[in-house]
Design a protein that fits this description.
Nuclear Transport Factor 2, Chain: A, 4 domains, alpha+beta, ten-stranded mixed β-sheet, 516 residues, Elastase, domain 1, 28% helix, 10 helices
């Protein structure tokens, strides 16, 4: 019935006022509210039955509380439930007198960055992703990494002694990894903008999203919007720089349309705004990514990898933006949340690919299979969603005790690109069931972790609806896999009924990946 289109609109809404009233009264004890706590709404969703879902950020003595975000679920003035992370289930609050000053925090954080620093700033926050809330400096840094990736990070340093509590990397990558005459989709229809003397790759129908040529620099400086005189872009080969641009431009439009037509979401921020895509990023850069405000696509190495502009990669990156605008799932150094973040992007990238149904890149549960120069049978991919552990390093089954925040660093044992295999397999089983994907000979027993080979899928549409509802209403920044089970079960109950066949399928699929 209602969805806010900006944090300002959300916070000024009657639903936000009602939620704040509940947090001051009936729900105060549940959220461990103490004097000095305040709550700011940044997203509001109201269902047809009047249920209100208000996503709140917590503040203490006017300082942001990192990890204190929550979603208040209510109807007719009564609390139904509250989704919150584990770190704020405490009445404890730290002393607000720092032991080091901001300059020391800037120095400490700057020494951790492996590249050129363009901008850096520090502010005091309450860090609540650890054992107890701690006064910390949040140091926000942008710059250029030594490996050509954009640098956009938040460092959280203990304000008592400068010890690093968490490095939060906002650049989320795809892997280690008119008429558009594209590289991977053949000739496709794309929307551009008519300007004096020709056309530009600006899409007025989707919030003026733009596709730009980074000119093989590792920076947005000097990038130019693709322009053309006849509105035909590229020649289906890397010999024309506009070919890769056509893939990226089309992929963003397809993803925009998927979220709008399927979930009623009008762009990443639900405000109708488009996004910028920079192709030809860096030199022989084998990666693509979302940095928090725009997307970048490398050209690959020209030996093993093409430009990383495949449809599911574009969908994957734009979905990172949707996650950032809603649940804000953590990435590195946050237990299970990084894997859920990556899995969310793989899920929606896959659903975009299925939705487009292009004969040159038909839907499948492989991520990035089109970026390989040689890939007979399309069996090679960045990730196999049904059996991600086939790469020898990823996970497909949830380990006892879950993943470790201390091991969830880039290219570490619990890197989000590897722990996402649990969520990816869950979604595959929920949508498709315990059946081998075309082109693969895995037995049903090889696709489950608990021997339950009789799982029957409920279809991609229902599975996608459940995941989107859980993401936007029940996931928060530090959600774990067991909490994701709870959130998706609630989403299934909301959509199809408590105890329905869909609800039971969600429970069974999670158990099949050992999330109980």
């Amino acid at each position: 019935m209602f969805a806010s289109t900006s944090p300002e609109e959300a916070d000024a809404s009657p639903a936000a006022d009602r939620a704040r009233g509940l947090l001051a009264g009936a729900a105060a004890r549940q959220v461990h509210r103490v004097p000095g706590d305040g709550f700011v709404a940044r997203d509001v969703l109201v269902d047809r039955d009047g249920t209100e879902h208000v996503r709140m950020d917590r503040r203490y003595q006017d300082l942001p509380v990192i990890g204190g975000d929550m979603v208040v679920h209510s109807r007719n003035g009564r609390v139904l439930s509250i989704t919150q992370a584990e770190g704020m289930r405490s009445d404890a609050r730290p002393q607000l007198k720092p032991g080091i000053d901001a300059d020391r925090a800037l120095l400490e954080a700057g020494s951790l960055f492996d590249g050129r620093i363009d901008d850096i700033a520090a502010q005091l926050v309450i860090y609540a992703r650890g054992a107890a809330p701690t006064l910390a400096y949040q140091v926000s840094l942008t710059g250029q990494r030594s490996d050509q990736s954009p640098g956009n990070l938040s460092y959280y340093l203990d304000a008592r002694n400068g010890k690093l509590l968490q490095e939060d990397d906002h650049f989320h990558t795809a892997a280690a990894t008119g008429t558009g005459r594209s590289l991977t989709l053949g000739n496709v229809s794309i929307v551009t903008n008519s300007v004096s003397g020709g056309y530009q790759m600006t899409d007025p129908s989707r919030g003026n999203g733009q596709t730009l040529d980074a000119r093989n620099r590792s920076s947005t400086s000097g990038a130019t919007v693709f322009s053309d005189s006849d509105n035909t872009w590229g020649n289906n080969t890397v010999g024309d720089r506009a070919s890769a641009a056509a893939d990226a431009h089309y992929g963003v439009a397809a993803t925009f349309d998927y979220f709008k037509n399927t979930h009623g979401r009008n762009g990443i921020g639900n405000n109708g705004n488009g996004v910028r895509s920079y192709v030809h990023w860096g030199s022989n850069y084998v990666n693509a990514g979302w940095n928090g405000s725009y997307m970048v696509y490398g050209d690959g190495d020209g030996v093993t990898y093409k430009p990383l502009v495949a449809l599911d990669v574009a969908g994957h990156e734009m979905a990172h933006g949707v996650t950032g605008a809603t649940a804000r799932l953590g990435y590195y150094n946050v237990k299970d949340a990084g894997g859920l973040n990556e899995s969310t992007s793989d899920i929606f990238g896959t659903l975009v690919e299925y939705g487009v149904a292009n004969s040159n890149d038909p839907g499948d549960f492989l991520i990035g299979e089109e970026i390989y120069i040689s890939n007979p049978g399309d069996t090679k991919a960045l990730r196999l969603m049904f059996k991600q552990d086939a790469d020898g390093k990823s996970f497909a089954c949830y380990p006892a005790g879950g993943f470790s925040a201390s091991l969830a660093y880039a290219r570490g044992p619990h890197d989000p690109h590897q722990t996402s295999g649990v969520g990816n397999r869950f979604f595959y089983l929920l949508a498709q069931g315990a059946v081998a994907a075309p082109g693969f000979s895995y037995t049903p027993a090889q696709l489950v972790c608990n021997g339950d080979t009789g799982i029957v899928g409920i279809g991609r549409t229902k599975a996608g609806a459940i995941w989107y509802r859980a993401l936007t209403r029940y996931f928060v920044s530090s959600t774990t896999y067991p909490q994701a089970r709870t959130g998706t079960l609630q989403a299934a109950a909301d959509l199809y009924g408590n105890g329905s066949a869909e609800y039971q399928a969600v429970a069974r699929a999670w158990s099949a990946v050992q999330v109980n």
